[in-house]
Amino acid sequence: GRGDRVAFVGRNGAGKSTLMGIIGGRVSFEEGERKLGHNVTVQYFGQDPGKNLDHLKTVLGELESVSPDEMRPRLRTLLGSFLFSGDDVEKKVGVLSGGEKSRLVFAKMLLRPANLLLLDEPTNHLDVSAREVLEEALERYEGTICFVSHDRSFMDRIANKVLEIEDGRLRVYLGDYSDYLWSKEREAEEAEGERAAGEARAAPRSGRAGGPKSREQKRREAEERRRRSSA
Questions:
Q1: What CATH number does the domain containing 99 carry?
Q2: Which residues are CB-neighbours of 18 under 8 A, at least 6 positions away?
Q3: Which SUPFAM superfamilies match (predicted)?
Q4: Start-to-end C-alpha separation, the chain
Q5: Do 133 and 107 belong to one domain?
Q6: What does DSSP assign to residue 1?
Q7: 180 in a structural domain
Q8: What percent of the chain has pLDDT over 70?
């Protein structure tokens, strides 16, 4: 729903990035239907964020290429908020580090924000300061976010729902990642309790079946004790 921040979780190979790609229209599929809501626009951040940047442009030029005219006076301020200060904005995109490219892509995404952001491992390559900047920007963002991340602190700060992908099935948990782990622990405890209760219910039946033999065994043991005491 609008304003949801959904973390996709599941073991490696479960299909988290594939599902993200299907939602973003980047991955084809054989069955089912991809249907976005009315007037939904999508921005996608993949694991190779510099892939769609023009390496011959400057940092500022890359933003100018997609900026509405009314935003141009504020581009340096926007870049500053993503830790590009002073002469940094005149750097060629081609010489940027992975973390700098990620920050530039995020600045572009939020320059003309869509109402659905799809983020695949968004904190890769980011240092602590850059991650903090990204988290603050996403907290201010009013649209819907779906993301894949192995960064637990990021998931706890951003997510308000967790979508678990397991064996091709999807299950939604409310809350952040810590809430999800708590729910999984409770489920495991309940399953263990049900298993133990099932064993306890089965035990009297097996006990009754073995009852006569058990009493016979006790009788023989008592006779053996009497024989020893009289010897």
A1: 3.40.50.300
A2: 27
A3: P-loop containing nucleoside triphosphate hydrolases
A4: 86
A5: yes
A6: -
A7: no
A8: 94
- The position carrying tokens 């940027």 is 96
Strand partners, 174: 161
> Is residue 68 in a domain?
yes
The pLDDT tens digits for 86-132 are 999 999 999 999 999 999 999 998 887 789 999 999 998 898 999 99
Range of the domain at 219: 185-230
This prediction has a pTM of: 0.77
Please give the C-alpha separations between residue 71 and each of 90, 143, 179, 189, in angstroms, as whole numbers: 18, 20, 40, 54
Orientation of helix 177-209 relative to helix 211-230, angle to 10° = 60
Find the length of the chain: 231
The predicted-structure confidence for 176-226, as pLDDT tens digits, reads as follows 999 999 999 999 898 888 888 888 887 765 555 445 556 677 777 777 777
Q: What is the three-class DSSP state of 25?
A: coil
The DSSP element (H or E) to which 182 belongs, if any, is helix 177-209
pLDDT category of residue 160 using cuts at 50, 70 and 90: very high
Query: Collapsing DSSP states into helix, strand and coil, what is residue 137?
Result: helix
Task: Write the CA distances from 170 to 14, 15, 155, 157, 178, integer angstroms.
Answer: 11, 11, 18, 22, 19
| Cα(201)–Cα(113) distance, integer angstroms | 59
